[in-house]
Amino acid sequence: MDSLQMSAFAFQYELTPEKVEKSMALLDSNQMWGAYVDDTLAAKMTILDLQTWIQGKAFDMGGIAGVVTWPEYRRGGLVAKLLSHGLRVMREKGQTVSFLHPFQFSFYRKYGWETYAEYKSYEISVKQLPKLGPQPGRIVRSGHDIKLLNGIYEAYASRYNGTLIRNEAWWQNRIFGNTQGTVAVYYDAENQPAGYVYYQVKDNILKVHELVYLHHGACLALWRFLADHDSMLDKLVMNAPANDKLPFLLDNPRIKQEIVPYFMARIVDVASFLTKYPFASGAEWSLQLEVNDEYAEWNNGWFLLQVDESGTARVAPIASASPELPAASCTIQTLAAMMTGHQRPSFLMDIGRLTGTTEVCESLERLIPVRQTYLPLPDFF
């Protein structure tokens, strides 16, 4: 109960009996950590056991949430101790990467997290909605058919870096538990489910919670469906991946849009993460990589990275670099930005966040596949 009261105070919401009951049902004491001063809970955080897609592969991920300190105990280093302890816990669990939503990016950057996901926010007046003719296939309201929706979602989400792997409990408690609305599924001309939209119409505003499609035809059909709500709307609001091309498809692309920095990522265990990472195939390559990490000593130092023709890596710590092999150096924050695909090696080298030769940069550009990062807003934690 102390933890719930602390969260309600910090995040400024009313702790109603209904919220207490729901929160208590979802609490897992094995995921919660606290810092005590004189037997009083002074700070706390939660580590959610999650999985994420990176380069089409599932990675175990520790989701940091609910980091709170009572005001009278702030600036005393308690959060730093919790995060340091959390890194060890996640490493022991095999969670090689961690995500969090920061209250302040610069605060968590100090501890090794770095921006990995942004989203594009749209506000579209009813007159600017796409004008599309009849589309092949059909749209069916599905209700909360989690098995059906998750099959579509996984095919979509695995195309991005940083999306979550959802289980049934996540769908029930997070996706549908925190929002209300209607789900409509698109079946293509072959009668295959190829997309869905989860949305709500209220006060003449259509809010798209999630729009998922597996091909362009599904995208057009779902947009036609949304545009057919025009008689009830003043505007539509939604969020999309940062590289979304909707404005290019509109007759009038001058819609309100904003790129919003969203989530941060941290590599918990460099050696284990790089060993599991699916590099591009095609050629053998070796690199000596120096990583600077103040809060996880097992990451701080030199590593020998060897990638074979299949893109499989072997990684081992080494005492120092050899002049006979190529070498690069970066912080743990920069490594997270690069390996999640949020920033490319060439850009990081241009701004001085990654050091090495031009040849090293070109090799990293080839070995790290280009893939957009994304985390849908319903997955917020």
UniProtKB/TrEMBL annotation:
Keywords attached to this Swiss-Prot or TrEMBL record, sorted alphabetically, are:
Transferase
Q: Which Pfam families does the entry link to? A: Acetyltransf_17 (PF17668), Acetyltransf_9 (PF13527), SCP2_2 (PF13530)
Q: Which PROSITE patterns match?
A: GNAT (PS51186)
Q: Which GO terms describe its biological process?
A: aminoglycoside antibiotic catabolic process
InterPro entries from the UniProt entry: Acetyltransf_17, Acetyltransferase_Eis, Acyl_CoA_acyltransferase, Eis_dom, GNAT_dom, SCP2_sterol-bd_dom_sf
Provide the GO MF annotations for this entry. aminoglycoside N-acetyltransferase activity
Say yes or no: keyword Transmembrane helix present.
no
Superkingdom of origin organism? Bacteria
**N-acetyltransferase domain sequence ranges:** 1-130
Designated name of the protein: GCN5 family acetyltransferase
Q: Which organism does this record belong to?
A: Paenibacillus tyrfis
